[in-house]
Design a protein that fits this description.
ABC_transporter-like_CS; translocase; about 350 residues; Rossmann fold; ABC transporter domain-containing protein; single chain; binds adenosine-5'-triphosphate; six-stranded mixed beta sheet; nucleotide-binding; alpha/beta; disordered N terminus; globular
Length: about 350
């Protein structure tokens, strides 16, 4: 379900059915243990300290979005959590330090989809996704029927069945990105780390991928950590956010706490309008400086005072949202407005 905002831009909204558990998930007998905790993480690349003093905590079944400007350290943070970068400090997966896990143990606990991995051009989509089953296949053994079934099922859910026999070298960028995600999902680990999983995807596939991840999270208690550049999407799906700036945590909290006009202006140097959607989640709209805030509407200063508008008292409070009197006022100077975007 996608909609259009009043600015004419496309807005992805979460589907209304928060339960999301469609019963079609194909994981069996798997322990869903696994929250993530990072303590005082430091990563030095070559001679440069890229992350310093980073801490975060994601409960089992939570979705954390790591946001920040280019070069802030988001991918480095994800790689350190995935255990593929040397680090100091502690990364705990379900209470176990990731550095103490053998690769096979780690792969059963944690699946990581990098932003742009090098893909073997001659390998087929199916065989590449099947690599996600490696931690379950005995040494010197072959994959079994179950492994092939899980792989086929994930490919189907990501609209990739028709491409199953296609070599990776002959895919589009968005198809490649879904194949990388497929391999991670085929791994069926309780912790899923996704580095910018939707950058190359069209709007429909973005939504398909994010909804699938959310369904798995809600149905199986999957713990999800993603980096996301699209703050609007991050605000719709994550239940917690960490804003990284200059290799440190600049802010963390709920999407409403982190996606404020002030923080976005400070750390992204971007001019935005933040609104609250009917489900209470923040929506971030880019605003062009010097233009009216909304198409076809006069600037705020030119409009009659809200208190003077005659229809205000007659309107019912929106469903799922406290009446105006119960909502906190917009912080002064935040740049965020609280008008209903549908009016
Ligand atoms: N191997 C490396 N050696 C030294 N510095 C590196 C290395 N890899 C990355 N960096 C630097 O570390 C910083 C953080 O990089 P990282 O890829 O984590 O940023 P990011 O927040 O994911 O950025 P983006 O949004 O552009 O993907 C950047 O300044 C980058 O130039």
């Amino acid at each position: 379900m996608s909609g259009r905002d009043t600015d004419g831009g496309a807005v992805i909204r979460r589907t209304a059915d928060g339960s999301g558990a469609d019963g079609a998930d194909d994981r069996d007998g798997r322990d869903t243990a696994g929250g993530v905790e990072v303590r005082d993480l430091e990563v030095v690349l070559e001679t440069r300290t890229v992350l310093s003093g980073v801490g975060l905590r994601v409960r089992r079944g939570g979705w954390l979005a790591v946001i920040g400007a280019n070069g802030a350290g988001k991918s480095t943070l994800l790689k350190a959590v995935a255990g593929v970068l040397p680090h100091s400090g502690e990364v705990l997966i379900d209470g176990t330090p990731v550095r103490t896990l053998k690769p096979r143990e780690r792969a059963r606990l944690l699946a990581y989809a990098p932003q742009a991995p090098a893909l073997p051009g001659d390998m087929t989509v199916f065989d590449y996704a099947l690599l996600g089953r490696t931690p379950y296949i005995p040494y010197l053994g072959r994959e079994g029927r179950r492994d092939r079934e899980v792989t086929a099922s994930v490919l189907e859910r990501l609209d990739l069945s028709a491409l199953a026999r296609r070599p990776l070298g002959r895919l589009s960028g968005g198809e490649r990105q879904r194949v990388v995600l497929a391999r991670a999902l085929v791994q069926q680990a309780p912790v899923l780390l996704l580095d910018e999983p939707t950058t190359a995807l069209d709007l429909g596939h973005q939504q398909q991928v994010l909804e699938l991840v959310d369904r798995l999270r809600l149905a199986d208690g999957l713990t999800v950590v993603t980096t996301l550049h699209d703050l609007g999407v991050a605000g719709q799906y994550a239940d917690m956010m960490t804003l990284v700036a200059g290799g440190r945590v600049a802010a963390s909290g709920s999407p409403a706490e982190v996606l404020t006009g002030e923080l976005i202006a400070e750390h992204f140097d971007a001019h935005v309008r933040v609104e609250t959607d009917p489900s209470g989640r923040p929506q971030v709209h880019l605003e062009r400086p010097g233009r009216p805030g909304r198409r076809g509407r006069p600037d705020r200063e030119d409009r009659p005072d809200r208190e003077d508008r005659p229809d205000r008292e007659d309107r019912p409070a929106r469903e799922g949202r406290p009446a105006r009197e119960g909502r906190p006022d917009t912080p002064s100077g935040s740049g965020a407005r609280t008008e209903d975007p549908c009016r």
